Amino acid sequence: MMDVPNKLNLPSYKEQAPDVKARLDELKQQPVVIEVEKLVKEFPTEEGVRRILDQVSFNVHKREFMSIIGPSGCGKSTVIRMMACLEDITDGVILVDGSPVSEPGADRGMVFQKYTLFPWLTVMKNVMFGLEISGKSKFDAEREALQWLDIVGLEPYADLYPAQLSGGMQQRVAIARALANKPKVLLMDEPFGALDAQTRAKMQAYLLQIWEKIDITIIFITHDLDEAVYLSDRVLVLEANPGRVRELVEIPVSHPRSPDQFLSPEFLTTKIHLEELIHPSAEESQDEFEVVKMAATGVG
What we know:
The protein is of the alpha/beta class. It has helices at about 5, 20-30, 75-85, 125-135, 140-150, 165-180, 195-215, 225-230, 265-280, 280-295, and strands at about 30-45, 50-60, 65-70, 90-95, 100, 110, 185-190, 215-220, 235-240, 245-250. The protein contains 10 helices and 10 strands. The protein has a 6-stranded mixed sheet with strand order 6-7-8-3-9-10, sandwiched between helices. Strands 2-1-4-5 form a 4-stranded antiparallel sheet, with helices on one face. The longest helix is centred in the C-terminal third of the chain and has 17 residues, at about 195-215. The radius of gyration is 21 Å and the shape is globular. Mean pLDDT is about 90; it is low at about 290-300.
């Protein structure tokens, strides 16, 4: 049966324009910043041990923007929390610049979906917090915090409190706070998931601008396929129950990115492929149903 891209006369998601291929080839020549090797995560349950992640392995290169997607239950948020050492590893290893990680560190910044700013501190003080904890003087912390607020476009709001900001502005402060310690890797767990569509689109544009300005590698969890294609160099697709790597997809969309590309053939064919990886076709679903039905009735 003809696949969807062919029906729509779209190119293969594997086709890359010369500029895209050159960019991806250059990216893959960069040093590996994050190595995930045979990662396993298990949780005890009343019925026994449940395996959430099973032998997950992948690498992320310096200055790469990688998104991780997958169906519910695939463990994508668990992966990023284990990178931040907010979850224990059952088996396997995560390395940053070749060294195993065993505790949270300044080399990995984290931005969550829920707003995590300190409500009793001003915007400035929120961004200064980690800098002062790391031993910087108040003068140096304030100077660096202002630089980061300028990068995220919030310097005029430095003396406001989080409750006085919109959701998108609060997330920009959270990004500035995470970047203030100059991590090698920024870990983002569905950071725009709670925002309305218009604010989300603005935040995606802000994030790309920030990423282009500074030396940072980003690993981004999302369930939004448009967002994954728009932001990423590569997209890691996980399958569920247990979570395993299904495919690592190179995004054939040129840089710089813009919303105008959402309807380009390269964008559409990649989104369709990701959709097919995450959600099986009706025909595949019916085949799985028949197998389950036969097993339940003792047939076969």
